[in-house]
Every structure is written in structure tokens, then in C-alpha cells.
């Protein structure tokens, strides 16, 4: 029997709802600069390209954009604010721990590919008691490239002991789907995250709840084992 396929997860908007904490840190920073706060809806559209872009977008949305010289110190200040916030178990989306436990129990190698800095992502997973599930973590600062480039996904697969047949990326945004596409692996979109309209993102499958994942993986497996697979991305 083929070994279970590796499953690579995005972090923000997929495993955890990071809007409250990112919002607290960003709005503290904006407040120091005399700016108005950003709303949760704005934040959702800012997340997914790492903290530097988040900070830049926060400033651009509330007044003058930061100059190139201002971005570094503003980012450092943002990360200071963010780092002191205690991880909130309530930020984990419903069913994530038990579903990860089920996948790990079935033998799926599990990895993380986020555009958050690697150390921050690792510490967060550790505090939330999710770290033991992950055999590899690649962050937005791990490589010269970040999602939507394929390199971070391929690095996760290598770190998990790949190459593998039938690897799967699970994420909430266009970067996740594009990175999977570029890496030639199957993509599953979670519809509850920050990525916008599922119809605009050409994922192989869409799930509405994290707990739908085992059934989705089964559907991927059946598809890839069929004589005429249509995953990834309508390949025939
Ligand atoms: O924008 C970020 O900081 C991270 O986003 P991601 O975990 O969805 O890649
Ligand atoms: Mg995300």
C-alpha cells in the first residue's frame, strides 16, 4: 500500500484566526503614529503576505504610506507588540487539534508553510500545543522566496523526507493555491479564512470546515488513483 500523502498547512486563516492578535499589535503601532485603527475586515485583506506587508498596508490604509527607511523600525515595533501577546487557544479553528491527531495517527507526514516568520510560527504552534504534529516548518523568512513561489512548499516536502506522490497543500488564500499550483501538488482551500471568494481561486477542492479534511483527503486519494485523475488543477 502507498504511504499516506504528506499534508502541508498554511497557518493564518487556516489553523488559527490571527485577526484579533495581529489587529491588537497593528493598532497599537498605528496609535503610536497618531493613526486611526483598522477594522477586522481591513485586517483580513492585509494578512497572507507576512508582517512587513501587513504593516505597510496598515499605514497605507490610514494615511501616508511608510517610506522605505520607516518600514524596518515600524516592523520591529509591530513584532515587539505581537510577541508579548499570549497565544490564545480560542484562536484555533474548531476541530483542528483532533483532525491533526487523526491525520498523524493515519501516518500522514504533516508540515507547515506560512509567510509568517518561522520562529514566530513555531513558538505559536508550541504555545498552542500543536507543534508535536509538525515534522517541518517553513516560514516567510526561511528562504529567499515565499509563497506564492513553490520553493517553500518544496522545502517542506524535502524536510519531511520527500519527494512524495500525492502531496497536498491546505490553505485559505491565493498564495497557497498559487504555490501549490507552481509546485504541481494538489490544493485544498478552506473557505472560512481570509482568501476571498473560493470561485476566484482555482483550488482542486474547497472545504467549509477543517473537520471535513479527512473526507477531502480520501477524495483526493481516489481521484489520483483513478485512471484519469483530474487533480491537480484539472489535469487529465
Ligand atoms: O501574513 C502572514 O503573516 C502569514 O500568513 P499565512 O500564515 O496565511 O501564510
Ligand atoms: Mg493564510
TrEMBL record:
Keywords: Carbohydrate metabolism, Hydrolase, Magnesium, Metal-binding. InterPro entries: HAD-like_hydrolase_sf, HAD-like_sf, HAD_sf, PGP-like_dom2, PGPase_prok. It comes from the Bacteria. Pfam families: Hydrolase. It catalyses: 2-phosphoglycolate + H2O = glycolate + phosphate. The active site is at residue 10. Its cofactor is Mg(2+). Its EC number is 3.1.3.18. It is an enzyme of class 3 (hydrolase). Pathway: Organic acid metabolism; glycolate biosynthesis; glycolate from 2-phosphoglycolate: step 1/1. Mg(2+) binds at residues 10, 12, 172. GO terms for molecular function: phosphoglycolate phosphatase activity. Belongs to the HAD-like hydrolase superfamily. CbbY/CbbZ/Gph/YieH family. HAMAP family: GPH_hydrolase_bact. PANTHER family: PHOSPHOGLYCOLATE PHOSPHATASE. Specifically catalyzes the dephosphorylation of 2-phosphoglycolate. Is involved in the dissimilation of the intracellular 2-phosphoglycolate formed during the DNA repair of 3'-phosphoglycolate ends, a major class of DNA lesions induced by oxidative stress. This is Phosphoglycolate phosphatase. The gene is gph.
Amino acid at each position: 500500500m502507498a504511504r499516506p500523502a504528506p499534508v502541508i498547512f498554511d497557518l493564518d486563516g487556516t489553523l488559527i484566526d490571527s485577526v484579533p492578535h495581529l489587529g491588537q499589535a497593528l493598532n497599537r503601532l498605528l496609535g503610536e503614529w497618531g493613526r486611526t485603527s483598522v477594522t477586522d475586515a481591513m485586517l483580513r485583506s492585509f494578512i497572507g503576505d507576512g508582517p512587513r506587508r501587513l504593516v505597510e498596508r496598515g499605514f497605507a490604509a490610514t494615511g501616508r504610506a511608510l517610506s522605505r527607511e520607516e518600514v524596518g523600525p515600524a516592523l520591529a515595533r509591530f513584532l515587539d507588540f505581537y510577541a508579548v501577546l499570549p497565544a490564545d487557544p480560542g484562536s484555533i479553528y474548531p476541530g483542528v487539534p483532533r483532525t491533526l491527531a487523526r491525520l498523524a495517527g493515519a501516518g500522514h507526514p504533516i508540515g507547515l508553510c506560512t509567510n509568517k516568520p518561522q520562529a514566530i510560527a513555531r513558538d505559536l504552534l508550541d504555545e498552542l500545543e500543536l507543534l508535536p504534529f509538525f515534522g517541518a516548518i517553513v516560514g516567510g523568512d526561511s528562504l529567499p522566496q515565499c509563497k506564492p513561489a513553490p520553493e517553500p512548499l518544496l522545502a517542506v516536502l524535502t524536510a519531511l523526507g520527500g519527494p512524495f506522490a500525492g502531496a497536498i497543500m491546505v490553505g485559505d488564500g491565493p498564495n497557497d493555491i498559487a504555490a501549490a499550483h507552481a509546485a504541481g501538488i494538489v490544493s485544498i482551500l478552506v473557505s472560512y479564512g481570509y482568501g476571498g471568494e473560493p470561485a476566484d481561486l482555482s483550488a482542486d477542492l474547497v472545504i467549509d470546515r477543517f473537520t471535513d479534511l479527512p473526507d477531502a483527503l480520501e477524495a483526493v486519494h481516489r481521484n489520483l488513483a483513478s485512471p484519469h485523475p483530474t487533480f491537480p488543477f484539472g489535469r487529465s
